[in-house]
Design a protein that fits this description.
mainly beta; 8-stranded antiparallel sheet; two-stranded antiparallel sheet; 10 strands
Length: 172
């Protein structure tokens, strides 16, 4: 198998900001972005005991993702919410939504591995240069991840997330 291209990993935000995956209005993020990664920010503490042993405490991860640039486009469903959060300097529950992450490892597969998680969306600034009105934002993961899958057919229109393991193919 050849290495995966970057477009194999897709990130969607629920533009309804309701926090319920059954009614999510997913919009893919990545227009105008040349590089975007989830920074896992592992939280570990290493200490050395008086016996000369090294002990590592693993506190998990504090993942974040920066979306920069995000050019203001009134045709994008995410734009009005980002505008309101930035200009209104909103905080807390007003910034919570869901993120859907999908990885397409086999373009011929009927279903693709996906995760849904509550996130906080926080614009980092607004303004920019002559390229356009930019509202770059940070996504901070918040709460438990739910593993599941999306159907390949749904990715063309509205991703449909189903909790659980990917069903095995009938042709196997």
């Amino acid at each position: 198998m050849a290495k995966l291209n970057r477009e194999a990993l897709a990130h969607y935000l629920d533009t309804s900001f309701k926090g319920v995956d059954e009614s999510a209005e997913w919009e893919i993020i990545g227009d105008d972005i040349e590089e975007m990664s989830v920074e896992l920010n592992p939280d570990t503490e290493t200490t050395k005991t008086i016996l000369g042993q090294t002990k590592t405490k693993d506190n998990g991860y504090e993942p974040t993702m920066d979306a920069d640039p995000f050019y203001a486009d009134p045709d994008k469903k995410l734009y009005p919410k980002l505008r309101d959060i930035a200009l209104g300097q909103l905080k807390g529950d007003d910034c919570k939504t869901l993120m859907l992450e999908v990885i397409i490892e086999d373009t011929e597969a009927d279903n693709h591995l996906a995760y849904v998680q509550e996130v906080m969306v926080k614009p980092q600034s607004y303004g920019g240069d002559t390229a356009g009105l930019n509202i770059p934002f940070q996504v901070s993961f918040n709460g438990a991840r739910t593993k599941g899958y999306v159907t390949a057919a749904s990715l063309a229109t509205k991703p449909t997330f189903t909790k659980g393991e990917i069903p095995s193919s009938l042709s196997e």
